[in-house]
Design brief:
about 40% helix; 8 strands; eight-stranded parallel barrel; alpha/beta
């Protein structure tokens, strides 16, 4: 079984320049929640002036009808974000916290040093666990930084160990600007499994340079069974210019199913949600399976 967290409603939507109507967000969240995906990142508790697209996150959480067997995730940037989220505690089960593996990217992203971010997130994770929430720590630019170049995996694992010690049960390694290659990914996840025994290790690949699915395959070979993806290939990153989004969930699921892995996800329902998003956004999306359709072997 391969576990997939759909992150489109947060990681995907937040990069869209035109504000998406709340009604559309709620409908798309509800569609995704009925695809068979068991983990769904719905929104983020960040300041509205920082990410206006998610200013209606509270309303989306309150209105969306999500089945009980789907674990709702929200992104929490800091203690203030957690304070704002806790009044809606009954509407979500998991939090994601994030920081970067390098000083330059962390400074550019959240205007803090890595140590400042880590110290703050240790407090956030501790408080979240006291509330009965599951916590994931996301480490951006784990495979390469657009400002500093190569990133030492040992440094990434040190950050991960701090997050785990604070109470994180899952660590996601982000290829935030699509710099990873399959050989590197295979070696990285092999080493991560040794460095972080008993921790759920998750891969978060962007398709910036068209290597996301190849990197997924390499992670699978190294034993990784948890991935994050975005329907329609929604998402992106400010650098490099023109960067595409996360690996498309439907492309990921199609490849996994063809390889014999079970995801529990219904491809037709997933494609319906992606097609709906494409209509809402009024532009073609990057997903290959959305364009070509799933493979049909004419099997009985």
């Amino acid at each position: 079984m391969v576990r997939i967290r759909e992150v489109g409603p947060r990681d995907g939507f937040q990069n869209e320049p035109e504000v998406i109507a709340t009604d559309d967000k709620v409908r798309l969240v509800e569609k995704l929640a009925r695809t068979g995906v068991k983990r769904l990142e719905v929104t983020s508790f960040v300041r509205a002036d920082v990410i206006p697209q998610l200013a209606d996150g509270t309303e989306v959480l309150e209105r969306a009808d999500v089945p009980d067997d789907v674990s709702v995730t929200v992104l929490i940037p800091n203690e203030r974000g957690l304070d704002n989220a806790l009044p809606l505690r009954t509407r979500f089960q998991e939090i994601n916290c994030f920081l970067s593996a390098t000083e330059s990217h962390n400074k550019a992203n959240v205007n803090r040093s890595v140590e400042e971010s880590l110290s703050g997130l240790e407090t956030v994770i501790g408080r979240a666990r006291e509330e009965g929430l599951r916590a994931e720590g996301v480490i951006s630019v784990s495979f390469g930084c657009p400002y500093e170049g190569e990133v030492d995996p040992a440094r990434v694992f040190e950050i991960a160990e701090r997050l785990v010690a604070a109470g994180a049960e899952e660590i996601a390694f982000g290829d935030t600007t699509g710099m990873a290659n399959p050989k590197q990914v295979r070696e990285f996840f092999t080493a991560a499994a040794e460095a972080l025994p008993g921790v759920e290790l998750t891969a978060h690949f962007h398709n910036t340079r068209g290597q996301a699915l190849a990197n997924v395959f390499a992670a699978l070979e190294a034993g990784c069974r948890s991935f994050e993806s975005s329907f329609g290939e929604l998402g992106g990153c400010p650098v490099p210019k023109g960067a595409t989004g996360n690996v498309a969930t439907e492309d990921l699921v199609s490849m996994l199913h063809e390889m014999g892995y079970d995801t529990g996800i219904d491809m037709s329902k997933l494609l319906d949600a992606a097609a709906d998003a494409q209509k809402v956004l009024g532009r073609p999306l990057g997903s290959h399976v959305l364009i070509a359709g799933p493979v049909d072997w004419h099997r009985a």
